[in-house]
């Protein structure tokens, strides 16, 4: 199957390679000349045979919005656009409407797998009309992991459902990573535990907490015991925030996901104003000692 792929970053570049290895003809476009196959989006459209299928794999937000608008101007009736980035699901309806006015179909696809997807395959969560999803199934089947289709691919519902599912997926991921991190810190704090990495390594097989994330933490600890080479500063992609916002809207309690999001915010503070206030209050009501910052800093 022939496919246009816009965005050849860490994910897009590997997806192009996996699809080519699977026998598909992939024509990629990226602003970076060292990785692109064609110089412009117009050239990409001209290189594809109608009816075209174009997968967009660029950062969410304004870049995705601009890319889809530009594609609407160079593609034709009967073509199909797949947004595989981490767009917020509320953006999918407007994108589908804009493309639909020109007879161009739209699918939103949540993609998980990171840099390991080239070898292991990608978990896919898609939203769109049945006919459009069926049309793109050769692409989805090549990208997903081997094995039964349902173990790595889901047609979650109409437009928007794919990105909503991926949003919740990332929220769960936030909570899992925090739990694994807390477990490591507790193990490292206890003198009885001689090697926290060995404990996590032992958990990779047979235990009820084993998972790919847990295996990656064991691997990371082996490569950098004690994490002496990195700081605890942790960014968030936005999907954890969106998950909490949607949980509030739907009145669904997600305390674990919310706590993991706020933990990331806390990681960016050199000295927490909240804990300074707590320390001051303890001193005020109970006369508890506070740790003063010396004049020299």
UniProtKB/TrEMBL annotation:
Question: Which GO biological process entries does UniProt record here?
Answer: D-gluconate metabolic process; pentose-phosphate shunt
- Work out whether the entry's keyword set contains S-adenosyl-L-methionine: no
Q: Which InterPro entries match?
A: 6-PGluconate_DH-like_C_sf, 6DGDH_YqeC, 6PGD_dom2, 6PGDH_C, 6PGDH_NADP-bd, 6PGdom_BS, NAD(P)-bd_dom_sf, Pgluconate_DH
Q: What positions does the domain 6-phosphogluconate dehydrogenase C-terminal occupy?
A: 162-296
Q: Which UniProt keywords apply?
A: Gluconate utilization, Oxidoreductase
Q: Enumerate the GO terms in the molecular function aspect.
A: NADP binding; phosphogluconate dehydrogenase (decarboxylating) activity
> PANTHER family per the record?
6-PHOSPHOGLUCONATE DEHYDROGENASE
By sequence similarity, the record places it as follows:
Belongs to the 6-phosphogluconate dehydrogenase family.
What's the protein name? Answer: 6-phosphogluconate dehydrogenase
Give the species this sequence originates from. Answer: Mycolicibacterium agri
Q: Which gene encodes it?
A: gnd
């Amino acid at each position: 199957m022939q496919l246009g792929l816009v965005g050849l970053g860490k994910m897009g570049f590997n997806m192009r390679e996996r699809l080519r290895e699977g026998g598909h003809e992939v024509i990629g476009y990226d602003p970076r000349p060292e990785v692109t196959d064609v110089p412009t989006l117009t050239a990409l459209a001209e290189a594809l045979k109608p009816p075209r299928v174009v997968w967009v794999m660029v950062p969410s937000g304004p870049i995705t919005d601009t890319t889809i608008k530009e594609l609407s101007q160079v593609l034709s009736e009967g073509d199909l656009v797949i947004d595989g980035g981490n767009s917020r699901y509320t953006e999918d309806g407007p994108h589908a409407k804009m493309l639909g006015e020109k007879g161009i179909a739209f699918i939103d696809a949540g993609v998980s797998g990171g840099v390991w997807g080239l070898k292991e395959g990608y978990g896919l969560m898609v939203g769109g009309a049945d006919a459009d999803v069926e049309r793109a199934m050769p692409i989805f089947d090549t990208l997903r992991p081997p094995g039964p289709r349902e173990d790595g691919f889901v047609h979650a519902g109409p437009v928007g459902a794919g990105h909503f599912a991926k949003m919740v997926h990332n929220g769960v991921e936030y909570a899992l990573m925090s739990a694994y991190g807390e477990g490591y810190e507790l193990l490292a704090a206890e003198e009885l535990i001689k090697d926290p990495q060995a404990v996590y390594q032992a958990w990779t097989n047979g235990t009820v907490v084993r998972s790919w994330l847990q295996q990656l933490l064991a691997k990371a600890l082996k490569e950098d015991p004690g994490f002496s080479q990195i700081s605890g500063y942790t960014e968030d992609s936005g999907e954890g925030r969106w998950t909490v916002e949607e949980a509030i809207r739907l009145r669904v309690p997600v305390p674990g996901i919310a706590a993991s999001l706020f933990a990331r915010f806390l990681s960016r503070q050199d000295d927490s104003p909240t804990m300074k206030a707590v320390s001051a209050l303890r001193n005020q009501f109970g006369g508890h000692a506070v740790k003063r910052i010396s004049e020299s800093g």
